[in-house]
């Protein structure tokens, strides 16, 4: 099973400031690249717990007594760490979004490159698939999905066209979906718009924004004071949530200030925003939109 190079490998793991005897969590195990690098830096008493909801990732489990792979969504990080008698950790790493492997397996339906059934589930245990969103959502919900998660200004028109097409039968695969939406895909920017449409459906199917919020809130509870959070995001919706939560412990609005105009923050930002250099992007095209933010619990 081929998994691509992990993005910003050194920078992300450096950001955790690993203690040899520490306890760490990689919530997006995938091919295990980040986990391998963490294990290299841990001593014999260190521990690493990894999460991945995708059953395919289980084939990559590492044979190391310091390592445990948990086949669950990382929105349940607190629950499953407690199950393993872990209440607090020294660092948490998250490489958000879809893995290169998921993009490259045609039948998973994540990529615009292949004709495949509408799926896009990161875990095959999920009831909702892309087929369900496209064929069963009403107009208002389709409009919400494309506007909120695809940031598409013509979301109302896209929703109407899908509903009209459904009157003639289900939309079952990616080629049918492209054909239905062809009027919104001018040749010079069809790939960009199609990527936004796919992103919107995928986020809805996997509840990615809700999952990210739940994860960030639990990370604050689980991390020890001085513990590090290292998060790579790939689009503005993810990055906005991560940035806001690190900055003031909230996803929206501003925290309450005291009489002097000060407010306490849960995290301290470590360094500046990190993005891949040209050399990494040449080797790994998936890295081109990556943004790494590192924070330390106060």
TrEMBL record:
Enzyme superclass (EC): transferase
Amino-acid positions noted as binding S-adenosyl-L-methionine in the UniProt annotation, renumbered to this chain: 32-34, 52, 74, 95, 102
Gene Ontology MF terms: rRNA (cytosine-N4-)-methyltransferase activity
Catalytic activity, reaction form: cytidine(1402) in 16S rRNA + S-adenosyl-L-methionine = N(4)-methylcytidine(1402) in 16S rRNA + S-adenosyl-L-homocysteine + H(+)
Any one GO CC term of the record: cytoplasm
Subcellular compartments: Cytoplasm
Family: Belongs to the methyltransferase superfamily. RsmH family.
Record-given protein name: Ribosomal RNA small subunit methyltransferase H
Organism: Flavobacterium microcysteis
Biological classification of the source: Bacteria, Pseudomonadati, Bacteroidota, Flavobacteriia, Flavobacteriales
Gene expressing this chain: rsmH
């Amino acid at each position: 099973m081929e998994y691509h190079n992990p993005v910003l490998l050194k920078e992300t793991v450096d950001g955790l400031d690993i203690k040899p005897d520490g306890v760490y969590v990689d919530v997006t195990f995938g091919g295990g690249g980040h986990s391998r690098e963490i294990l290299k830096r841990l001593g014999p008493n260190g521990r690493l717990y990894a999460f991945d909801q995708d059953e395919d990732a289980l084939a990559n489990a590492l044979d190391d007594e310091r390592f445990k792979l948990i086949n669950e969504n990382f929105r349940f990080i607190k629950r499953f760490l407690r199950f393993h008698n872990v209440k607090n950790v020294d660092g948490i790493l998250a490489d958000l979004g879809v893995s290169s492997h998921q993009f490259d397996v045609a039948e998973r339906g994540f990529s615009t490159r292949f004709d495949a059934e509408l799926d896009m589930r990161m875990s095959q245990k999920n009831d909702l698939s892309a087929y369900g969103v496209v064929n069963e959502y009403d107009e208002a919900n389709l409009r919400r999905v494309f506007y909120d998660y695809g940031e598409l200004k013509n979301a109302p028109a896209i929703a109407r066209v899908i509903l009209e097409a459904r009157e003639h039968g289900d939309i079952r695969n990616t080629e049918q979906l492209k054909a239905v939406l062809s009027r919104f895909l001018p040749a010079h920017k069809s790939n960009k718009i199609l990527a936004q449409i796919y992103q919107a459906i995928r986020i809805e199917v996997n509840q990615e924004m809700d999952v990210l919020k739940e994860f960030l809130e639990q990370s604050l509870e689980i991390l020890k004071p001085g513990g590090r959070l290292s998060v790579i995001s790939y689009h503005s919706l993810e990055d906005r949530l991560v940035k806001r939560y690190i900055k003031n412990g909230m996803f929206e609005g501003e925290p309450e200030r005291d009489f002097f105009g000060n407010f306490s923050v849960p995290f301290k930002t470590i360094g500046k925003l990190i993005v891949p250099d040209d050399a990494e992007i040449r080797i790994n095209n998936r890295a081109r939109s990556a943004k790494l933010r590192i924070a330390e619990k106060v």
